[in-house]
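Page 47, continued from p. 46.
Same chain as before, 163 aa.
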Amino acid sequence: MAQTSDTAKRHKRGGLYFEGFVMGELVEHRYTRPVTQIDNMLFSNMTLNPQPLHIDRHFCERETEWGQPLMNSLFTLGLMIGIQVSDMTVGTTIANLGMTDVKFPHPLFEGDTVHCTTEVVAKRESKSRPNAGMVEFHHRAYNQDDKLVAECRRQALILRRPA
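Result:
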């Protein structure tokens, strides 16, 4: 079976190989995700984070400017990166190398719906691994009102297309 140009640049699981990433390309991801109280409770408890800002509605209503729980920012970060996986990197990521410029400019609340974009900002061949390249992404997450709730730059080691 002959490969089309799209399947030639994608892994059998759907992720783009290193060669398929185009600098400057902006991807609007297809998945959106409502965030819930149970997400906040489970994530905060699994990570041993007892911060009442995330898990105590009564505290938030009486003692914070928000009047309601904020989503755990590390949950938000993980969700933002996770949403891009099925569109871009499933099966082709070797490793995350780091994240920089992580920001949460607007709060994300229980009940909000998240949608995300990813921009390819840089790429280069790996100097030590001939089967890989490094790609830098700028991920952004927005709520249902298009307010930016999170962003980061992420560097990842990505498989090159097999010969």
